[in-house]
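#data-curation
PF: Archiving a pair of folding outputs for the training set. Convention for this channel: one message per protein, sequence first, structure tokens after, nothing in between. First:
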Amino acid sequence: MMNRKPFVGATGRPAPQLQGSPLQIDKRADVCRDEAPPRPYQALPPIFIVGVHRSGTTLLRYMLNSHSRIYIPPESDFIANFFLRRPSGELSERRIAQLLDTVFTRYRFVGEWQGDPPTAAAFIAAMPERTPAAFLDTLYGTYARQNDAVRWGDKTPIYASYVDLIHRILPQAQFIHIIRDARDAALSMLDKYEKEEFHVDVFFAARNWVRRIRKAQRDGARLPAHLYHEVRYEDLVQNPQHQLEVICDFLGERFEPAMLTHHRAARERVPADSHFFDNVRNPTTRQRIGRWRAGLAPRDQRLVQFVCGQLMDELDYEREDVGRMSPGELMRLAALAAKYATLQAGRRVLQEVGLMPPI
């Protein structure tokens, strides 16, 4: 059994037994850098970076993490799993303890956590109320303070499908939806996942691109303009300062030049041999735009444009003349679509009985 130390903040001091919100507690313990108490974390809207896998979400995470006021931890993946059925209401102490244990034993989210996990008793004492919103704010807020930040965020690509859910939990959360050319996103997904994940193939990459973007845009359209913002990967890497200034304005933050040198922070966190995130260790480059022309096989180019073409048109991604799909390619498309439909149906059944988390 793990020998846990007291729940501590950024200074390494145990959390005192005081009344009030978790932030009031930590402020009295001099955890925050400023003498004057900052606003509670929920008064500073949480930031959620969403988007299709391999669309630049990690790049944007490190850009925002290079801002002195913001900290975004590794991907969480657990919000929909924990709160899809009950995004509000009171959580029992037992449920909070279970969730906390699950976070610290099963998720890579805690990969940058400093010190021992909090005990359930200390964590519950730090929560201003026993709700999903308070659970997340206490967890992420503590993480942010460990990194001397006053505002927390999240970067989890699958939350492109859960913007509405997160808004119901955290009504002030701001969403940045990053979108990349379907063909480049598909190529990158195949490069990183195809050999390791049975469900990943070119049809999955293309269909997933449409599904995630459509859902995020539908949810985003129902939000006020100050809560939902879209940015193109291509614009971000071609003119990073301008795009980051726009993003900072959306967030109500001042642009900081350090955001342009995100790779320095990434090199401290990402191993040089990282299979998935090695690119973020390098300065921003335009060279990854249009890689699909040389990297995707012609039949895959045709398949992606066939599946994604309508949405590509709507987003002003120009389709290129790559020829018509042959009868053999149409048969392959049908087979991959059947595989996708079968796996999706199986996932839905497993999710309904609680054997698989939402994805």
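PF: Second:
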Amino acid sequence: MSKEDKVKQQNGQEKELLSVIVPVYNARPYLERCVKSIEKQSYSPVEVILVDDGSRDGSLELCTLLAEKYGNIRVFSKQNGGAASARNMGMKYAAGSFIAFVDADDYVEPEMYSEMLQCLVQNRAQIACCGKVRHLPDGAQRQDCVLDQPACFSQTEALRRFFSADGLEESVCDKVFSASVIKDVRFREGSVCEDILFAYESLLRAQRVCHVGQAAYYHYCCNNQHSASTGLFSEQSRAQLEYPRELYFRIKKDKPELISDARRYYLLRLLDCYVQIVLWPDSVEQGLRRGTTKEYYRNFWKLLIDKKVSSERKITALVYAFHLQKAAAWIGKRVRSKRK
């Protein structure tokens, strides 16, 4: 490890460099808040890599000003190619022994990386995870991916939890990765929801994965590009089905003991996409609508016989399979009115 990757602390211990990669695209209103939250980290040393992805709102100029203000920021710029290509560029130039990702319109708590890296080192893990606070467009907040207490998982258990979103999920932003584990992993460019495959590939390479427990250190803000996918069937909706389908077929070779978990993960995403298509049929290209509908009718019965799928989800699968949603809404309204 190079001298640049370490800094001597007052107690004589050496701490290794953490590289935080931030892809930036038209994020000027939020960028300074994001960078300030990283600069306030109790962990040191940290380098911040800002990768401007062809912004047109002055984000690159703000990146340059922030780099002049803080001595640990490096700025790179490229033609617009999406968050995946920006993150890949950041990984190319990252010098840290550990790597983390933050989206430019989100922010983090001051203790986030200190607690996660302590958890990672103590458990001899290669990936550390934390909970997050999801800020919804209506102003509400919700905690996701928190556990009752700190935990450490084997590779198999981590993947199982990934498929069920039990403390681990697809986002890369609520994780810290050992650079050695992801040295051969890159984001798939030209698509959205690139976190899904990257997280899966990383978990396949990690022997141990730890979680700090209840702490929700990452703040995910549903604004800017994130809010564009709410409601209507979108490119993100399509990717959120295509990737789980791909992982379901891959798991047979990678981890055959997790086939049922991967199948359930894929089928629940298929259900979500089909519901969106039923609710907003005009927002979906006709060929895609027909293909997804056929795929759903070939597979929805598998949800009904899966003992680990909740009754609520099974009812949803039946209601939308037979287009009973209007009747269900009417019955629900009558039941609620009688309870009053």
